[in-house]
């Protein structure tokens, strides 16, 4: 082929450059194919970016449906380092005076010093085997009707439901009913009603106090009052040990193996062990006032008999005072004295520390702002991809998804969901505008944080219902059974449904489009390959044809030269 290409063009003047020009003239379809493929890849890439933004938007919206979204609490302590207090949405806002009198500690026993190495076989040291036993020993007073089916818990809920009217809130602290005025200042809590005494609230001298601690109730929060008291009535409030484990010890055991054996049974015995400077040190895993019992034929040999007082450290219960109520627990993490509150003790206090529990408006506002920011990011990107540019320009550039019906519908639906009212029954407060979210003509959303905080202060449930609300309807089926239908009408729920229809990995619109793009790009790859093969074949034909032409012309020239030489020779002979 190299020799043929060298000959080509020698006589005809048709070179490889001419061949490539001919091939280029026939490559229009190839340019079309590659252009289509580039365009498809750009569209596919754009949809992948849309997927990412929609997924992020879904995450921001889902955060607004969580229980803590608009009822989050924050805690401020008057002194740090003594304890931490975490408050869930169920916690009551208010001020709590807390004193840490004592931290819970573990019981510990330090054995007598043993004069043998940890790996010494006991048979060689003591000449015997045996066992070891271990174990642990100005508003109108509000009348709240209380029925025979009520419990302490439901009474507390009822009091708190009327806080706005009565000015008084309530909480259970270690089985005491604690009343607190909602407003600060020197206020008087008045108490009356037929069951005040039963609730431990028949207290003499209760004037001019803002915190009131009831007498301790000897019944569980969920105990029905009819079973405890045998009556119903009303309440008027207003402002004015474990089993020992036997561990066999053989002659092959060492101190280390005995320690290992003790620790292997910690779950059952409640006791762990360690060697410190040849002393066996036993410790109860749980905190609190507990006693370690020791027995067995080898207790004395292990240095665990006839112990002196300074070898035993008795565990202590945690002791705290919350709003004047003394509480003890066998743990430094206390979560059962107030609903929604966990108290983690760190150190004792010399004076009461005030824990102020308030609504965390900043956290709630941030969640909404995060959603608004992601919404704007998504809508801006969609607008860029749909941009048609300036058609009058010769080199006009358009967005990768310009004219795509699916992305246009998505843009319209997203805008509609943010501006349409929510059918949750809160007329006048069922739009994004009501909580400070506005949308301008360009589709950009803006959050008025002050308006949102005001809405949260007035009624956080109305804000929550805007994003997360389910309507339940019941109907009777043909067979007589009751059918319950749940319709999720909240803004976040509708956003989630719409976004999932696009982002679902199996049946989503984007997944379907991605599969289509893959097939179309693959098909174009095949067509480009086939077309290139045809062009290569045509190039070879051109080379052969034009090389043959040059050879023919060369041979013709040779024949002409031969004839001319013959003619010249003949003329010479005739002279």
From TrEMBL:
One of its GO terms (biological process) is bacterial-type flagellum-dependent cell motility. It holds the Pfam family Flagellin_IN. Coiled coil: none annotated. This is Flagellar hook-associated protein 2. It comes from the Bacteria. Residues 315-555 form the Flagellar hook-associated protein 2 C-terminal domain. Residues 16-106 form the Flagellar hook-associated protein 2 N-terminal domain. It comes from Jeotgalibaca porci. Belongs to the FliD family. One of its GO terms (cellular component) is extracellular region. Keywords: Bacterial flagellum, Cell projection, Cilium, Coiled coil, Flagellum, Secreted. It is found in: Secreted; Bacterial flagellum. Required for morphogenesis and for the elongation of the flagellar filament by facilitating polymerization of the flagellin monomers at the tip of growing filament. Forms a capping structure, which prevents flagellin subunits (transported through the central channel of the flagellum) from leaking out without polymerization at the distal end. Homopentamer. The lineage of its organism: Bacteria, Bacillati, Bacillota, Bacilli, Lactobacillales.
């Amino acid at each position: 082929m190299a020799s043929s290409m060298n000959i080509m063009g020698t006589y005809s003047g048709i070179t490889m450059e001419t061949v490539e020009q001919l091939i280029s003239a026939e490559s229009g379809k190839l340019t079309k194919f590659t252009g289509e493929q580039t365009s498809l890849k750009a569209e596919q890439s754009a949809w992948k970016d849309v997927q990412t933004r929609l997924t992020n938007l879904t995450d921001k919206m889902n955060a607004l449906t969580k229980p803590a979204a608009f009822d989050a609490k924050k805690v401020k302590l008057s002194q740090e380092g003594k304890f931490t207090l975490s408050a869930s949405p169920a916690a009551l806002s208010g001020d709590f005076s807390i004193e840490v009198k004592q931290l819970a500690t573990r019981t510990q026993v330090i054995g007598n010093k043993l004069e043998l190495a940890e790996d010494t076989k006991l048979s060689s040291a003591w000449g015997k085997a045996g066992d070891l036993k271990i174990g642990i020993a100005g508003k109108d007073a509000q009348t709240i009707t209380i029925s025979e089916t009520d419990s302490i818990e439901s009474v507390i809920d009822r009091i708190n439901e009327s806080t706005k009217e009565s000015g008084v809130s309530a909480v259970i602290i270690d089985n005491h009913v604690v009343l607190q005025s909602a407003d600060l200042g020197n206020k008087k809590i008045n108490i009356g009603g037929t069951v005040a005494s039963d609730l431990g609230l028949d207290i003499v001298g209760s004037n001019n106090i803002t915190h009131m601690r009831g007498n301790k109730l000897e019944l569980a929060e969920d105990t029905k009052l009819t079973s405890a008291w045998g009556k119903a009535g009303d309440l008027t409030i207003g402002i004015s040990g474990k089993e020992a484990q036997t561990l066999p010890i053989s002659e092959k055991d060492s101190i280390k193996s005995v320690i290992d054996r003790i620790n292997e049974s910690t779950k059952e015995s409640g006791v762990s062990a360690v060697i410190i400077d040849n002393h066996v040190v036993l410790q109860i895993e749980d905190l609190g006032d507990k006693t370690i019992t020791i027995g067995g034929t080898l207790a004395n040999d292990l240095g665990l008999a006839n112990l002196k007082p300074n070898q035993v450290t008795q565990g202590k219960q945690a002791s705290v005072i919350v709003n004047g109520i003394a509480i003890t627990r066998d743990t430094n993490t206390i979560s059962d004295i107030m609903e929604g509150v966990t108290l983690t003790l760190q150190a004792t206090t010399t004076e009461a520390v005030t824990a102020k529990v308030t609504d965390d408006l900043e956290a709630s506002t941030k969640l909404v702002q995060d959603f608004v920011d992601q919404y704007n990011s998504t809508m801006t990107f969609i607008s860029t991809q749909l941009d048609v540019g300036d058609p009058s320009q010769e080199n006009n550039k358009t967005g990768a998804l310009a004219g795509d019906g699916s992305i246009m519908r998505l843009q319209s639906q997203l805008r509609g969901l943010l501006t349409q009212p929510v059918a949750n029954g809160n007329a006048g407060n069922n739009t994004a505008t009501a909580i400070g979210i506005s949308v301008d003509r360009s589709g950009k959303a803006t959050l008025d944080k002050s308006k949102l905080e005001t809405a949260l202060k007035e009624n956080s449930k109305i804000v929550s219902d805007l994003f997360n609300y389910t309507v339940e309807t019941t109907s009777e089926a043909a067979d007589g059974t009751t059918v319950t239908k749940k319709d999720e009408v909240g803004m976040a729920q509708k956003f989630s449904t719409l976004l999932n229809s696009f982002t679902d990995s199996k049946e989503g619109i984007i997944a379907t489009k991605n599969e289509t793009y893959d097939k179309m790009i693959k098909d174009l790859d095949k067509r480009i390959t086939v077309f290139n093969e045809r062009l290569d074949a045509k190039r070879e034909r051109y080379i052969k044809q034009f090389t043959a032409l040059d050879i023919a012309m060369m041979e013709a020239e040779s024949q002409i030269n031969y004839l001319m030489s013959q003619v010249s020779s003949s003329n010479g002979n005739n002279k």
